[in-house]
From TrEMBL:
GO molecular function, one term: isomerase activity
Domain Thioredoxin: 1-143
Stretches that traverse the bilayer: none
Classification via PANTHER family: ANTERIOR GRADIENT PROTEIN-RELATED, THIOREDOXIN DOMAIN-CONTAINING PROTEIN
Record-linked Pfam families: Thioredoxin_7
UniProt keywords, alphabetically: Isomerase, Signal
Domain of life: Bacteria
Descriptive protein name: Thiol-disulfide isomerase
Length: 153
């Protein structure tokens, strides 16, 4: 039942942290709210490390608090099971994102982007750090970016 609910949340584009599924919308929100974009490539119904990352990292209380204040979450999901298939439009959108940001087809693959779509940091595979360490690293990158933005010298 838990796996069904998780897959349902991923395919609808929303979860605990409010995942977006459209890159242009994510960039617009990031600009308006002065946030960064966390883009995650996942296989919600077949990739064990992806499922584990969503469960252990993205649903972690410390992460969700940090994400609420610093991130626009963007999910590019590539489900394989027919019952979880995306619309043709969403599939094409995710494939275009993969062409641009994940041409090697790594899963999971996570990127931290600025509001223009420029890569700040990427994580290949399941992070070797703890969920708290992952959250702290992103928070530090967000705060460093804001400090540089507000201090032109």
């Amino acid at each position: 039942m838990k796996h069904f609910l998780f897959a349902l949340l991923c395919t609808t584009g929303m979860s605990v942290t409010g995942w977006q599924t459209n890159f242009e919308t994510a960039k617009k929100l990031a600009k308006e709210q002065d946030k960064l974009i966390l883009l995650n490539f996942s296989g919600s119904d077949w990739c064990g490390p992806c499922i584990r990352m969503h469960r252990e990292f993205f649903s972690n209380d410390q992460f969700t608090r940090m994400a609420d204040s610093a991130l626009i979450m963007l999910n590019a999901d590539f489900p394989r099971d027919k019952k979880h298939q995306l619309s043709k439009e969403q599939k094409a959108h995710n494939e275009a994102l993969a062409d641009q940001y994940n041409p090697s087809g790594k899963f999971p693959f996570t990127l931290l982007l600025d509001a223009e779509g420029k890569v700040i940091r990427s994580w290949d595979g399941f992070p070797s750090m703890s969920p708290a360490g992952f959250s702290m690293e992103i928070k530090h990158l967000y705060e460093s970016r804001n400090k540089q933005k507000n201090d032109p010298l």
